[in-house]
Design goal:
Layout: H1 2-22, H2 27-41, H3 46-81, H4 84-96, H5 101-114, H6 119-137, H7 144-152, H8 155-158, H9 165-174, H10 182-209, H11 218-226, H12 233-248, E1 250-251, E2 254-255, H13 259-273, H14 275-278, H15 281-313, H16 315-323, H17 331-346, H18 349-366, H19 371-382, H20 392-400, H21 405-434
Antiparallel strand pairs: 1-2
Helix pairs in contact: 1-2, 1-16, 2-3, 2-15, 3-6, 3-13, 3-15, 4-5, 4-6, 4-12, 5-6, 5-7, 5-10, 7-21, 9-18, 9-19, 10-19, 10-21, 12-13, 15-20, 17-18, 17-19, 18-19, 19-21
């Protein structure tokens, strides 16, 4: 009876979290209330659970990621004030044409992430560029999180051979190469890029028909920006290229620079190239602004991560883990469903993969499923229901756009949940003919 109540509490807490998020309730309240639902139904001590499990998740995420949030926010600020982001955005639009800028941007993001650029770093590098493109094309900024996830959280994250944590966890657990399931995986990639770009453009067109704009004060911003003198393309590209290079450069099989160090090098380059305009005092001011902004942003994410830790501490969590292998249906389909069930509960693809892959991998391969196809199915499937409202990156991206779940989550859901589900179906259909 206790186990049943715990499972009910877990499912109810997820429903409460989604409803509160979509109603625009403060994220801190969402995280605490949802945690209380799990705790009460599971018969856990409320005080000790919040003090240990919830705060462990909160503090752990803060400790692991605050430095990168802080430096990344400062990096993005420098790209904005120096005109680097605007120049790169205009160059992309000139090269691809205004008509195809919204296609070129996610593809550019995806290529860099596929080549090893961390998804969190990508949001700091591309957000100011994406902002300028959206401003110039007068596209509602509530669609920015959706574009970010299309470029960094779908095809770039599940493509065969990608160095993403998700891909390495799954392929490593099943003992196959990172490029395992290459043909069905690439078919899923091609499908996602083509359908995703067309789908996103359709969403933009609908917003325009509804007379939606980037912001209410868009015209005033346009007039201010028209008078601005921008740096040269070479000056603009250098900080970006330098950052991406430093993130990926290796020596002896190990990264030479930590992610934070790489972004600091990019910050230094952007500052030195615009030293006459910025000076020293302005930069110190931007550092202070970035520190305050990053604390606020990461705390919102921590509030949801804490909820995830409470979920994992509940008796229901292990019960569901034990039940997952019993999902009925064809092996590939049940494997994809099982992966998504765990992703929706934990709110993270890599975290769910770390739990599911070692358990389900041996079970499904023992049933005769090809290990390469099993690995690729899990990787592609995991990129779908990890983008639930309580996913930390989802929360961060929506708040960075200064939007709410109510305004920004539905287009994000289409790009980062529905589209990957379709891609996983493509992957499974193609794989069933090959393996």
């Amino acid at each position: 009876m206790t186990q049943a109540l715990s499972v009910i509490g877990l499912l109810l807490s997820l429903a409460v979290l989604v409803i509160l998020c979509m109603k625009g309730v403060n994220i801190f309240i969402c995280g605490i209330v949802s945690s209380l639902v799990v705790t009460v139904f599971s018969g856990m001590d409320v005080y000790s659970t919040l003090k240990t499990a919830y705060m462990s998740g909160f503090v752990s995420f803060m400790q692991s990621w605050f430095l990168m949030f802080f430096i990344g926010t400062f990096y993005g600020k420098l790209l904005e004030v120096t005109g680097v982001a605007e120049k790169v955005a205009k160059t992309i639009m000139q090269f691809a044409g205004r008509k195809f800028s919204l296609i070129a941007l996610p593809i550019a993001m995806g290529i860099l992430v596929y080549c090893g650029l961390n998804g969190f770093v990508a949001i700091f590098i591309f957000w100011p560029i994406m902002t300028e493109v959206f401003k110039d094309l007068d596209v509602p900024k509530r669609l920015m999180p959706a574009m970010y996830f299309l470029g960094t959280g779908t095809f770039a994250n599940f493509a065969p051979g990608t160095p993403s944590i998700l891909n390495n966890i799954v392929t490593g657990s099943l003992g196959v190469a990172p490029s395992a399931g290459f043909i069905p995986g690439m078919c899923a990639v091609i499908f996602t890029v083509i359908v995703g770009c067309l789908w996103f453009q359709a969403i933009v067109n609908k917003c325009r028909r509804n007379d939606e704009h980037f912001a209410s004060d868009y015209q005033e911003e346009q007039e201010e920006r028209e008078e601005r003198e921008l740096p040269s393309l070479l000056t603009s590209a250098l900080p970006l290229v330098l950052t991406v290079f430093c993130v990926n450069v290796q020596w002896g099989g190990k990264n030479v620079f930590e992610i934070e160090e790489a972004m600091l090098i990019g910050c230094a380059a952007a500052w030195l190239l615009s030293y006459k305009e910025l000076g020293f005092r302005k930069v110190v001011g931007y550092i202070g602004e970035s520190a305050e902004s990053s604390v606020s942003l990461i705390a919102l994410t921590c509030a949801i991560v804490g909820f995830g830790y409470v979920i994992q501490a509940s008796p229901a969590f292990q019960t569901i883990v034990d039940l997952i292998p019993r999902i009925p249906g064809p092996p590939l389909v049940s494997l994809a469903l099982a992966t998504n069930v765990m992703c929706s509960i934990t709110g993270t693809a890599s975290g769910a993969a770390g739990i599911v892959a070692p358990i389900l991998g041996p079970i499904y391969t023992a049933m005769g499923l090809n290990p390469e196809m099993a690995a690729r199915t899990m990787v592609v499937s995991a990129t779908a229901f990890d983008s639930v409202p309580h996913n930390g990156t989802v929360v961060f991206a929506i708040k960075k756009a200064k939007e709410s779940h109510k305004t920004a989550y539905w287009p994000l859901f289409q790009m980062s949940v529905l589209l990957p589900i379709m891609a996983s179906i493509v992957c499974m259909v193609v794989g069933s003919f090959i393996y």
